[in-house]
């Protein structure tokens, strides 16, 4: 059986790789880029760094900094209007997953019109929008290498999965120096997000030999370095490993798809504004335990890859160690419960059925080794509250 693999045309990896931006733009024939980012990137001086690199190559650029965390259909409208105002020929997406996801949606809508809900899964968006050069500043989402974007429909509180080659950046610049200023909470949430990507890609029913290789390599990088990057934010070796691990995990799930954790995570973010990586972290131990009976060898491979089990351990022992480690990661990285985050129990109970229905409709749960019914997902949500 053959598998089609999709990657950015260009991937620059390593310290100071952002300095290759002018060369990448030239290879695309682009001369007037718009930087799509958020206000934090402006405050941290990262936008100025990028514009300085461009100015040295005599490339003029503007920036749009009004993207928001967990982007909505409304939040990308201003970006669409901005990009239509001048003859921009490329987008530089700078920031975490939210600015990059916003840039993907803006790229398509600015060229083809309509509303983002017109492009949600199961539609495959293979039309080419403005070319995107993605520069991630978190080691987590892997969005720089994926053919997906997640945008919330604020009218229905649905986190819409949009998929297709039209959302795949043509280039990615993976420069770990841009993650050195990440605060511990963001380091934790995005790091567990990357770990979730790698695990779900490996156990996905759409997994293949190529995605397996990327997922296992990602876990080997993330496993020993996630807690280290959290406790030692200036540890460049740990940051570099996390950044590369995140990108490899993104490549893995872009070519194998995510599964039940992501399917159930998105409605939590949409209804209660829990950051995506954090809601993944809340779910990962419980969903892993639920899913192991359907793929014990695969999950045991994950335990060995992240370094908590050995080849001498049986699959049963390896999986016990995996669940224990995922719980320990959440404890050490101070992942809150839904109640501790501030979610209202009454509201949660009112929308839990809708969350389960939206999760199933996203398609991701069907990739899980063990595919739950809506009633089972409702029970899992209820268990999550109690945990």
Q: Would you give an account of this structure?
A:
By secondary structure, the chain is α/β, with parallel strands linked by helices. 51% of the residues lie in helices and 10% in strands. The protein has a 6-stranded parallel sheet, with helices on both faces. A two-stranded antiparallel ribbon has the order 6-7. Helix 5 links the parallel strand 4 and strand 5. Helix 6 runs parallel beside helix 11 and helix 12 packs across helix 13. It starts with 9 loop residues before the first strand and ends with a helix. The model has no long low-confidence stretch (mean pLDDT 96).
Helices and strands in order, then pairings?
Layout: E1 10-13, H1 21-28, E2 33-36, H2 39-43, H3 46-56, E3 62-64, H4 77-84, E4 90-95, H5 97-112, E5 132-136, E6 148-153, E7 158-163, E8 171-174, H6 184-203, H7 209-222, H8 226-231, H9 236-254, H10 260-272, H11 276-291, H12 296-306, H13 315-332, H14 338-341, H15 345-361, H16 374-386
Parallel strand pairs: 1-8, 2-3, 2-4, 4-5, 5-8
Antiparallel strand pairs: 6-7
């Amino acid at each position: 059986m053959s598998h089609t693999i999709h990657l950015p045309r260009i991937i620059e990896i390593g310290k100071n790789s952002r300095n290759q931006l002018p060369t990448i733009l030239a290879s695309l024939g682009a001369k007037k880029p718009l930087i799509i980012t958020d206000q934090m990137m402006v405050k941290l001086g990262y936008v100025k760094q990028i514009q300085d690199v461009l100015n040295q190559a005599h490339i003029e650029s503007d920036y749009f900094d009004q993207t928001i965390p967990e982007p909505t259909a409304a939040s990308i409208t201003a970006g669409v209007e901005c990009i239509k105002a001048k003859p921009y020929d490329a987008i530089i997406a700078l920031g975490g997953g939210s600015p990059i996801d916003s840039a993907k949606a803006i790229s398509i809508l600015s060229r083809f019109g309509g509303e983002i809900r017109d492009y949600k899964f199961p539609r495959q968006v293979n039309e080419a929008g403005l070319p995107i050069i993605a520069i991630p500043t978190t080691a987590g989402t892997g969005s720089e290498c994926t053919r997906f974007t997640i945008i919330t429909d604020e009218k229905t509180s649905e986190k819409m999965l949009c998929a297709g080659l039209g959302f795949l950046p043509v280039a990615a610049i993976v420069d770990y120096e841009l993650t050195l200023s990440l605060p511990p909470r963001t380091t934790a949430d995005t790091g567990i997000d990357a770990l979730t990507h790698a695990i779900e890609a490996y156990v996905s029913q759409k997994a293949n030999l190529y995605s397996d290789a990327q997922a296992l390599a990602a876990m080997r990088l993330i496993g020993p370095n996630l807690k280290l990057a959290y406790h030692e934010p200036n540890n460049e070796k740990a940051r570099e490993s996390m950044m590369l691990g995140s990108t490899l995990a993104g490549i893995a799930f872009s070519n194998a798809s995510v599964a039940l954790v992501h399917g159930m995570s998105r409605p939590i973010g949409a209804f209660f504004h829990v950051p995506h990586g954090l809601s993944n972290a809340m779910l990962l131990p419980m969903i892993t335990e639920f899913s192991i009976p359907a793929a014990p060898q695969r999950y045991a491979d994950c335990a060995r890859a992240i370094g908590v089990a050995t080849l001498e351990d049986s699959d049963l022992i390896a999986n016990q160690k995996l669940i224990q480690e995922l719980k320990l990661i959440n404890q050490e990285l101070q992942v809150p419960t839904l109640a501790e985050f501030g979610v209202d129990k009454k509201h949660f109970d009112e929308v839990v059925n809708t969350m389960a229905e939206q999760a199933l409709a996203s398609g991701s749960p069907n990739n899980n080794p063990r595919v739950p019914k809506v009633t089972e997902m409702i029970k899992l949500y209820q268990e999550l509250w109690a945990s």
